[in-house]
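Title: Prediction job returns without error message
Component: structure pipeline
Severity: low
Priority: P3
Assignee: unassigned

Description:
Job completed but the reporter wants confirmation the result is attached to the right record. Sequence as submitted:
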Amino acid sequence: MGGKFLMPAKFTVVYEDSAGEPGYEMDFEVRNGAPECRAVRISSSADGSEVQRKHLRMLSIDDHLEYAVSAVGMVIRTIDPVSGEITADNARDDAEVDKLIRQGRLARAESHRSLTDDMLREVAEIYRANVDTKPIEAVAAHFDKQHRTAQLYVKRARDAGFLGAALKGKAGER
């Protein structure tokens, strides 16, 4: 995460329930500067209740991600200008916890919005491979996006130079 905060590249949070309900583990990883949930495991204890649909419904990944960010995120206190050594520690108050959570949300929002050059190249390849049928629909299906979003991806691929100019009134490129 950017800004004045640090967090581990990968970490696992274990939630255990003392009332006999199933517990779970969540694996998190910082990818492209944004924290993400990469795995969830739910299991019941030997003498606890079985895992049921209600346990899945109660599991809010976004809420647990924010809790994890606030628990493991570190606030940078100083950076030595000569050695580059960083001094950091846990958030000291609610305001710093809120800043950690906001920084995590911002990083996640930015990572979801960004279309990398590799992704735009892939959009162009899929578009070209399906130009005789329905290229926008093929892009939408490949990325599991709505038609409108696929159109935006194709436009961005054109703007970035991975696809030629559009042919007026039909699929393709010049």
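Comment from assignee: result matches the submitted record. Strands lie at 5-6, 10-15, 23-31, 34-43, 74-79, 86-90.
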